[in-house]
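User: quick one, sequence for these tokens?
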């Protein structure tokens, strides 16, 4: 059974406060997204398996613990999810990266896949799906379903910087076995499906678009 993890570390909360500020420029915003993603990654990877390995220090032989070789993959939801990838890869250089592109159909309001490219061994990997915002939960749920149904992935974690209660409820309903890591749970969605108080459009603020 998956769990909701709200990461209230003071460094994460401080950087998130700067991220929310409408006066934060593109360069700083982009850097903050990466920094928060990296701090969240420490918690999201806490349960990775380790094994004992013998090494030789400049003083003596010793037994240390190292990662047990579990294969990982980072899968951003385009386009805003790209802002979280590089910082996570800095921590886990051996992780591979897949990409999912989704848009919302204007008539049905349902997510439609327009791009999907995955490493060939994706089904064998622990998947971290990343996107700064979890608003309605529609895109994230569709991305998780795609990874399960098209690629046979069974080990999936969802990482978001800010989540709305509505989005969390959708993920818990549709994918109760997926662990969800967020830095903050905000009040609600407004009539335009923006998170309140949120931080605006994460993709526009990362890439400097409107």
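Assistant:
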């Amino acid at each position: 059974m998956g769990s909701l993890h709200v990461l209230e570390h003071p460094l994460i909360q401080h950087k998130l406060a700067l991220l929310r500020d409408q006066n934060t420029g593109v360069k700083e915003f982009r850097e903050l997204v990466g920094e928060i993603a990296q701090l969240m990654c420490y918690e999201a990877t806490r349960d990775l398996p380790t094994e004992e390995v013998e090494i030789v220090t400049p003083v003596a032989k010793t037994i240390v613990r190292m990662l047990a070789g579990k294969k990982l993959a980072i899968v951003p939801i385009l386009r805003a999810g790209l802002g979280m990838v590089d910082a996570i890869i800095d921590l886990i250089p051996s992780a591979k990266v897949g990409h999912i592109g989704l848009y919302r159909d204007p008539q049905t309001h349902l997510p439609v896949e327009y791009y999907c490219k995955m490493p060939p061994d994706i089904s064998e990997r622990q998947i971290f799906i990343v996107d700064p915002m979890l608003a309605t939960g529609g895109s994230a749920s569709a991305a998780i379903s795609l990874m399960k149904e098209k690629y046979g992935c069974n080990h999936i974690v969802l990482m978001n910087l800010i989540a709305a209660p509505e989005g969390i409820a959708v993920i818990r309903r549709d994918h109760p076995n997926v662990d969800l890591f967020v830095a903050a749970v905000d009040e609600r969605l407004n009539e335009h499906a923006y998170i309140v108080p949120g931080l605006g459009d994460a993709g526009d603020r990362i890439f400097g678009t409107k």
